[in-house]
Protein 1
Amino acid sequence: WIAGLASDPAVPESFRGHLIAQFSSPSDRLYQPGVPLDLQLKNPSATVQKIADENAKRIIDGQDGEDLDYHFRTGQLDAAAVLARVEKEVPELAARDPLALRTAVFNQLAAVNLPQAVSLLSGLPEPQRRDLVTTFALESYSIQPQELLETLNYVPPRTQQDLDLQRDLWERSTRSFQTHREEYPAWVQALPPGRNREFALCGLAEVTADPQLAARLRDLITDPALKKKAALHAP
């Protein structure tokens, strides 16, 4: 009943805002059909990014219409086309903060196909691209080894901090990769020379319970500091 009043344009806007501010709780859905964005933001837990996230999920998952997630998975729509559909559904939000909406769509699509989703970030400054990609990779439980490799190649490190973060990503992800994929050790050893191979070798050498595999991996590491680091965790 309260949600109906809050979304009724016949009700004075000041009173609708009061309803949202007084009766919303952190667990409420932030998306409210028919409610202007400024009124939605009166929800104590609301931010533009949170509202963008909820709208992107709702629209892409097809909760109110076409299943864009399915179309993206099957290659019928690319990332740019999905973003355009979402922007069309929420024009006020798209006009207010296009980056928030683009970020929300990226995060939704990255869970399906990260290398394709990064195309949405091509027009952003490099620091923003790097932050969005690495944040997603750090928080993701579904990223696959090849996806991580392709994505990190998309945002090559520029500073020591970038290198440290990429190493941390490989170390964290390796715990999942080597547990669920029997072929992962062979995949790592077949990687072309470079920083990602070094980080992946070190990460796997640190977590494997197989002492022979750990020794082989350490022998393949060329970076002295990483070789020493891997040896500290030898099984």
Protein 2
Amino acid sequence: MRVAVPISNPAETEYFDSGQDVEFFCGYMPEWWLKKVYETMPSAAAALPYAANNRSIQGSITDVEAMRILVEKCNEKNIELLVAMNVKTIPPQLYVRFDELVEHSLELGINYFIVTSYEYSKHLSERYPAVRIALSCLAQTTNSYAARRFSELSSVRRIMLPRHLSAYEICNIATSNPNCEFEFFIFSNRCPYDDGRCNASHAFSAICREALHYIAGINDDNSSESLRHSLQTARFNLLNWTLPGFEQAEHSVRLNQLACSACSVPIFLDCPNITTAKLSIRGRGFEERIAQYEIASRVISIARSSSPEAVRNWMKNNFGENFCSGGLHCMIPDQWGVC
């Protein structure tokens, strides 16, 4: 089992050695491509959800030379690199733009993409036989029949399962589709929106200040004091809804925002096609990403010869006795009989 780690620049690869059970994923939005997307759509607001990959552009790679170097370093270390194209749906007029990005990426030596849209996945399978697809968690594959439909596409190699499934459901989906790989979230940001469509859909309410900034253009310069206060309060409540002030101990991980499924790893190891444990912390600092990677790697090592209870005990020893209490950090809740 490998750990999928978000990466934002070539220098971050220096921490990892060849042969480690790790892979990288990133957003890639070269400036020339962003310009074409904005030219194709009728307005900047209409273009942004597609150009920004449902996220802010920050944290993604926009420089072609930086991506070229990243690919070279990954090849040197024999580490897989996936590029995210997480747009939920792609309008017909943008197919040519995304095809241009795929062709450009293939020229750089990238042929593994994270894709959400079934129709575009089908299009890639038919047009670009060299492309491999990891189906994004945003596709919301929640049962074995949906997984089978996606895995029938020739380019789909892996399906990333969403955060809210139980261990039983994950194992059932995987065992029902033995010819496809599956990925689960071992650690994730705590957010009530399980679909991860941060900047694409949450602008309809004042819960996410970032979304209003990028989608609606509302920022500190053009908003009222009462609106800014409301957004700041909503954001504070959102980011601290689990255990405010949770003791940080000696770790660089923001524990009060950490959602965890570590104790399910021993169960998932019994399913050979559950191959990847994902860290969902794009945009976080490198120190925190490395800290979570080290924890995930240690958990997988323990899980190879131990039980879920042994993993829970290790997590509690490192993060505090209350970490596994009450289900507040748990993505696999106790009502499913796992935690």
Protein 3
Amino acid sequence: MKSLSIILCVFLTTGTSFASTSETQPLHFQAWKDQQITEAQNQVLRDSSRVLLIRNTKTQAALAANLPNSKVRNSDPLTSAEKTLRRSQESLEAANSLSFEDYVSIYLPSLRNQMELVAKLAERLSKDELAEIFKLFMRQVSTQDAKRNKPLLDARANDTSSHNY
């Protein structure tokens, strides 16, 4: 769950869209995973470059002012950039470990309002992939139904236990 929230956080902050309206072909699992990994790698590279730039700038400023490097390294922009880099690295790790279940729970719901893409995807998926999607959706639905119907079921159980037949 932590990896899912990290992935979602990065994609929301970087403006990544799972299924843009200009997309003409839906992504199968491996293409989607590869896209997420590539985007995460690019984010790590951008954040690494930012950290290096800040360190280099701060070091040069410290040398020019004859300040010890330790005072420069603890500055807010560098600390913030390093935290961002760590989050990007965690997101890359999470992207590398994406599963078919993640594909079903993250990417497929993004196609909800694009039924033509869903139809194209259904034509391209294997029977095994479709079966796995159905299993995962049914598991999600049954879990949601159990949570939603628990008060009703508890009430019925209490009602029938109070009657002596």
Protein 4
Amino acid sequence: MAGERADTLVRADAEPEFRRALAEVGLTLPTPAVARGWLFRYYAQAGATGAIPAASALQRIMMDVYFGGEAASQDQVYAGDALGIERLVGLYWEYDAIPERVFTDAEQAAERSRLEAEIQAALAGFGHSRQASLPEEIP
């Protein structure tokens, strides 16, 4: 490994070295479930504050957190209810379906704008505090 160029390493080669380096400085990687919880809060705050577009933040939450783990398979009655994010899941699919239910460009732009504001408001409830319904770890 010593003397190899970084661009020739693959993740399988780099991961043990990365973990060893973290251990040397006293750091540990979070579990995947804890990391998903951090990601959720990061994206929620970024979307709520406008650091990134709210719809983009919600898409990352859905892809990296909700579908990226086991949370979706733990829902009981409504999509998202295992994490208390039913409204976010509904907004995600509503935003995704805009081209299928709104036909003119002007109407699509207006609908995107309306939903972007609604998504931003919904994300604000998650980004700044530890909401009781959102666990520290997200399976």
